[in-house]
Amino acid sequence: MELFFDLVFVFTVTQLTTLLVDGFEPSEAGGQQASPVVGALRVLLVFGVIWWMYSGYAWLTNAVPPVRAARRVLVLVGMAGFLIMALAIPTAFDGGGWAFALGYLIIVLVHAGLYLQATASFVRVVPFNLGATALLFAAGFTEGTLTHLLWGAAVVLVWVSPYFVGQKGFPLHPGHIVERHGLLVIVALGESVVAIGIGAHGVVNPALLVAATLGLALGACLWWVYFGGDDPEAAEHALARADVVRRTQLILGAYFYGHIPMLLGIVAVAAGVKKALGHPLDHMHAGPALALSAGVTLYLLGDLLYRRVLGLPRRPLRTAAGVLALAAVPVGLLGSALAQLAVLTVLLVATLAVRAAPHRESAVVD
């Protein structure tokens, strides 16, 4: 049931990739197009509100497992809310914001109703969620700067709520949290592979096949960073050792905040790969080239934050690789999309290979 839910949620993440790509180049029809900076800002704003509610549902099913028919039906209704939001994302700032807010309202109401079955303390966060929904509805009927300000206010309102609500009364099961977020990362990486198919239009030729393979290899490296060792098991043990309040704080730091750059990194990499596959032998435009490299950087920095919060062994080479990934931007701008993909893939493969070699990199624990 939860994996089914994640598939719908990841569709919203895929729509963020579309939102980001839309800002890379002028509209072929000559219409008004958001700049890359505005496109990136919109991605951050939309991600801010949807990630808050996804995490809320992950905590929800941790406390209220959807084992009864009535609960499953309500979770399905919540999925419908996420689907409505996802469909509205491409036009959320251009007339479709009311539909996004409607989907968000459905999600908030279902979430509140189910969570109250587990703990009455959650009632304290409901006003924050409803307040954010009201701001999103207001944004749906405005234009320009005011729209962005209302979206920003909605993000701030839900993100500051933990400091007012407190972190007591959320006895979370470590195994479920670790597994749930691992499944989300897998599905998100799988959706990034879809970007290869979407971007690979036109005649199939050797350059396209090589670029597509490199795109898949890059996604595989990101998978290996997260799942290549025993980190999920170590994370579960770290959470199990903590008391209830401390565990909640660790989950907030590692799985709410720590996974933000990872997921945004996947979105950016998918957007870059999608554009790269269109013309693999041509120079990359600045937006896609930066997205491709910065996506890798964000993902690796998220991995660093996730590890630091849970006290897992650090991987200094991954941090260095995250910084070096930005150096591949000129390769795409001055060389080709294929060359930038190759450089990033080789960088990650080398980093992972050195880590796998015995006695080549020591594990440093905070």
3D architecture notes:
InterPro entries: Low_temperature_requirement_A. Keywords: Membrane, Transmembrane, Transmembrane helix. This is Low temperature requirement protein A. It holds the Pfam family LtrA. The protein starts with a helix and ends in a 10-residue tail after the last helix. It has 15 helices and no strands. The chain has two domains: 170 residues, no CATH class; 187 residues, I/LWEQ domain. It is globular and about 55 Å long. It is mostly helical.
Summary of the model, kept short:
This protein has 366 residues and is mainly α.
CATH C-level class of the largest domain is Mainly Alpha
Strand content: under 5%
| Rg over CA atoms | 21 Å
| Portion of residues within helices | over 70%
CATH architecture label of the largest domain: Up-down Bundle
Low-confidence stretches: 27-32, 359-366
Rough outline: globular
Summing up helix and strand content along with how strands pair, one would put the structural category as mainly alpha
> What is the typical, i.e. mean, pLDDT?
86
So how many helices?
A: 15
Number of DSSP E strands: 0
Main beta sheet strand tally, sense and closure: none
Q: Secondary-structure element order, as H and E?
A: HHHHHHHHHHHHHHH
Question: Layout of SSEs?
Answer:
Layout lengths: L1 H21 L13 H28 L5 H20 L8 H19 L10 H14 L4 H22 L8 H26 L6 H22 L3 H11 L2 H14 L1 H20 L7 H25 L5 H10 L3 H7 L1 H20 L10
Helix pairs in contact: 1-2, 1-3, 1-7, 1-11, 2-4, 2-6, 3-4, 4-5, 5-6, 7-8, 7-9, 7-11, 8-11, 8-15, 10-12, 11-12, 12-13, 12-14, 12-15, 13-15, 14-15
